[in-house]
Design goal:
Blueprint lengths: L4 H9 L2 H21 L8 H12 L4 H12 L7 E8 L5 E8 L2 H13 L4 E3 L8 E10 L3 H10 L6 E5 L2 E6 L4 H10 L7 E8 L7 H15 L4 E6 L6
Antiparallel strand pairs: 1-2, 1-3, 2-8, 4-6, 4-7, 5-6
Length: about 240
């Protein structure tokens, strides 16, 4: 479970063009989730998860407020939530989550991003069985022992607690996401480097340099698609 989520996040946020694209994707996701349930995060747990993740990406409050107000106003835009699964070079596995108002367009774009970069789309279930939905919460300024003590005192279970560079990363069941955060907040910790529910590969694979470069190009092509919200994979991209 050693993938460095915070490094991936900062790599995305370091590009101005990517930053605006990330913000737009958050705006769409917040609107959809707020429209599906209550526009109040305290009454809509799915919205609360999205807002916690948005905070770690420094999404401006204006974008968040605009999306929620749009949902409150009964915006007429309608989006389908889709999941695509596929394979990259050397049998690497990829999951792509999308929000779209044009299913045919998105399917075509995702298929092209795979096909032009040495990959191919698979059928539903061809990849996802090798991934687990996982709450990932990271923080700085504490040791793994201190984090474990906080969680034990709050009677909150975690799958794993790892120290990665300057951060401690907690991996837990998705239904423990809010409980883990509540335990930390009770201990005075309110800032997180990572706070999201992801599809985490059960094991990572390492690609040779040429295949790794091609794989990264494919992931970039998928993430650049406006309809794509999240891309998960099982490749170790650490240096």
């Amino acid at each position: 479970m050693g993938r460095k989520w915070n490094n991936i996040k900062e790599k995305k946020a370091s590009k101005d063009a990517q930053t605006s694209r990330i913000y737009a994707k958050f705006g769409r996701e917040i609107y959809v989730v707020a429209k599906q349930g209550e526009p109040d995060p305290e009454a809509n747990q799915a919205l609360k998860v999205v807002l916690e993740r948005a905070k770690t990406y420094n999404v401006p409050k204006a974008i968040i407020d605009r999306a929620i107000e749009k949902a409150k106003g009964g915006g007429e835009e309608s989006y389908d939530e889709l999941r695509y699964e596929g394979f990259g070079p050397n049998g690497s596995m990829v999951i792509v989550d999308a929000l779209t108002n044009n299913v045919n367009r998105t399917a075509s774009d995702v298929r092209a991003a795979f096909g032009k970069n040495g990959g191919n789309m698979g059928v539903s279930g061809s990849v996802s069985y090798m991934f687990d939905a996982t709450a990932v919460i990271g923080l700085e300024g504490k040791s793994s022992d201190e984090v474990l003590e906080i969680l034990m005192e709050a009677d909150v279970d975690a799958r794993d607690i790892l120290e990665e560079e300057d951060a401690v990363i907690v991996y837990a069941e998705p239904d423990q996401f809010h409980a883990v955060q509540a335990a930390f907040k009770e201990a005075g910790i309110t800032e997180f480097t990572v706070a999201e529910i992801v599809m985490l590969a059960q094991s990572d694979v390492t690609l040779p340099e040429d295949a790794k470069a091609q794989f990264e190009k494919m992931i970039d092509a998928l993430e650049d698609l406006d309809d794509v919200q999240q891309v998960y994979h099982n490749v170790d991209l650490s240096e």
